[in-house]
Design brief:
The chain is an alpha+beta fold. The protein is built from five helices and twelve strands.
Length: about 325
């Protein structure tokens, strides 16, 4: 950038005036008693710093426009592909129902497989009963259980393994307990199945499973406080009234007596005999609710006794009580 220096010199004690009608030149300025130097810079069309600033600003604006445009596109795509929670829950429930039905049919197959009656008629009935569970061209004579008298006691599901998810084939394992020749036997059975269109088909020969022993990895400790309830103790008079009510309740509960509905919303047992019943605690949760905890023993017929803890939730009703829940 070029510079022009102008020196203004003193001519007379007075400031000289230019001729009338003539404009003063910026280079011709006379001041009294002094000489000044005035520097001028030539005008530039665009200042370099200004140009740089506008270029940066333009790039920044372009970047922001592209960024927000991209984010908007992503948001629309995400919204379009968002997961429907109700659909997910429905699919999970459907999957669980499908699995439950497959396991149920597998259980029925094991019961039919093991249960046998002697004689030609028994063999024929068994083959007709087992046929719906077998795949096409299945060799019935290779099922491994000979004819004889066997009675199923219980069948318990053990585990399920997916063989081919696409083909929908699985390996099912059950623990079966049965009585033969008056002796109880127990063994694990495993077999491959195909489950499609709501129907199970056995596609392989059942065999005795070799179950691995479960290693002790969970070191949880028994916590007796989990079964304890908190609240206020009841008076001795009310304790005696509740004790009498609970005793009467269990007498009706074990036989599912028709009078049970008058004092309880709980479904009773059937054909059981009450052996004993004890009360451990009676706690008042509020003015209208009482929790009773204890244990009881029952038996069916002349068999061995079965014991269980219990917790009753009682509601106070007109100087008596009503069983709302039993756990």
């Amino acid at each position: 950038m070029s510079k022009v220096s102008v020196k203004v010199k003193q001519k007379a004690p007075q400031q000289s005036f230019l001729k009338k009608g003539k404009k003063a030149s910026r280079e011709q300025i006379e001041l009294e008693g002094q000489v000044r130097t005035i520097r001028f810079a030539k005008k530039s069309v665009e200042n370099k710093l200004t140009l740089f600033f506008y270029v940066v600003l333009a790039c920044l604006l372009f970047f922001l426009i592209m960024l927000f445009g991209r984010l908007d596109t992503i948001a629309r795509a995400s919204h379009a592909q968002s997961i429907d929670e109700k659909q997910v829950v429905s699919e999970v429930q459907k999957s669980l129902e499908t699995q439950d039905m497959m396991l149920y049919q597998g259980n029925r197959f094991v019961q039919t497989l093991v249960s046998r009656t002697e004689g030609t008629d028994g063999q024929k009935e068994w083959e007709e009963a087992i046929a719906p569970y077998l795949a096409k061209k299945y060799p019935v004579d290779q099922l491994g259980f000979s004819s004889g008298e066997r009675r199923i006691n219980s069948v318990t599901f053990v585990q399920q393994e997916t063989l081919d998810k696409k083909a929908k084939t699985f390996q099912l394992t059950y623990e079966v307990t049965y009585t033969e020749d008056k002796e109880e036997q127990s063994l694990p059975l495993t077999f491959p199945v195909s489950y499609q269109k709501g129907q199970l088909k056995v596609i392989g020969i059942p065999q005795i499973a070799q179950l691995e022993e479960i290693e002790t990895k969970n070191e949880a400790t028994y916590d007796e406080t989990l079964q304890k309830v908190t609240g206020e103790s009841v008076s001795q008079e009310e304790k005696e009234a509740i004790t009498s009510f609970v005793t009467n309740y269990f007498d009706l509960y074990v036989t599912n007596d028709e009078k049970l509905k008058l004092i309880s919303a709980v479904q009773g047992l059937s054909n059981a005999t009450l052996v004993s019943q004890t009360i451990d605690s009676i706690i008042e949760q509020d003015t209208d609710t009482v929790l009773v905890t204890g244990s009881y023993q029952i038996k069916f017929g002349e068999s061995s006794t079965i014991g269980s803890p219990y917790q009753l939730k009682l509601s106070k009703m007109n100087n008596t009580y009503f069983v709302d829940e039993m756990n």
